[in-house]
Amino acid sequence: METHSAYKSRWLPWVLLAPTLVILVVFLYWPTIETFRLSLFRVAFLGLRKTFVGLENYREIFTNPEYVRIFTQTAVFAVLVVFFSMAVGLMLSVLANQKVTGWRFYRLMLIWPYALSPAVAGVIFLFLFNPQSGIVNFFLGKLFGIRPDWLTEPALAMGVLVLAAVWKNVGYNVVFYLAALQNLPGEILEAALIDGATPWQRFWRVTFPLLSPMTLFLLVINTIYAFFEAFPFVDLLTKGGPNGATNILIFNIYRDGFEFFKTGLAAAQSVVLFVAVVVLTIVQLRFGERRVHYGG
């Protein structure tokens, strides 16, 4: 059977794709290639002079105790953000899936923080946890007589940072978990109910396994979020302090590149961050697929 092309000219598809391809090359592919190239150089102030050093930048960031500390803090931050974002998102989506009076309003309130920009979310938490005028310390002072200095204590500062990142992203998880819950096969849930399973048993043995495809998807997305999108929170809330306790990798890349003008080291850290996220994503997909249950 003879088929006919939708385009009269074989060049027309490329002409239509050209604007998108130009944007991808200029703003994605070329900067990525340039980052890999710069990671092999020591760059003088403002890029006036470049010296090829091979893998020396990578050796420094993996042997320097300060960079090792940053990697550790980044890993701790990412694990906490991913775990609590997904756990709280799942819990809230299960509650929001109940048909109660005003359920539409509750769902809207759970989702709206995700619509805010990270910068706005950071400013909100900056005001909430202000040691002098923040509403959190106001209630803590009234109820317990304490007013913690949240952003000058290392553990507290990291906690506020994690809380801000979780609060900003939990609505995203609610949206997807809620959609998945509403599409679960009802007959399986009804069968478990008839068999006498308790609500706890129905959730962990029936509902949660059926949600595993969505859980795997959100695990990957939340991991990318924790590594790449936390910069505004650190910049607005702690500036990496106190004493570098919240200086995670994405913020340190900015500082090395634009404050200290260590462009080569910043590029090397960018490559390490990129490779780490790619490897984590592959591992999650490989091992996660074994626990994923598709279908009813």
Brief account:
The protein is mostly helical. The chain has 13 helices and two strands, in the order αββαααααααααααα. The two termini are 39 Å apart.
* Element-by-element helix/strand order: HEEHHHHHHHHHHHH
> Structural class per helix/strand content?
mainly alpha
The CATH architecture designation is Orthogonal Bundle
The strands making up the biggest β-sheet line up spatially as 1-2
Question: Helix share of residues?
Answer: over 70%
Beta fraction: under 5%
State the name of the first-level CATH class: Mainly Alpha
- Number of separate domains: 1
CATH topology: MetI-like fold
Largest sheet: 2 strands, antiparallel
CATH superfamily: MetI-like
Based on CA atoms alone, the radius of gyration comes out at 24 Å
Q: Name the poorly predicted regions.
A: none
Per DSSP E runs of 2 or more residues, the count of β-strands stands at 2
How far apart the termini lie comes to 39 Å
Question: Shape, please?
Answer: globular
How many helical stretches?
Answer: 13
Would you write up a description of this structure?
By secondary structure, this protein is mainly α. The chain has a single domain, classed as MetI-like (MetI-like fold, Orthogonal Bundle). Helix content is 72%, strand content 2%. The protein has 13 helices and two strands; from the N terminus they run αββαααααααααααα. A two-stranded antiparallel sheet has the order 1-2. Helix 4 packs across helix 7. The longest helix has 32 residues. It is globular, with a radius of gyration of 24 Å. The model has no long low-confidence stretch (mean pLDDT 87).
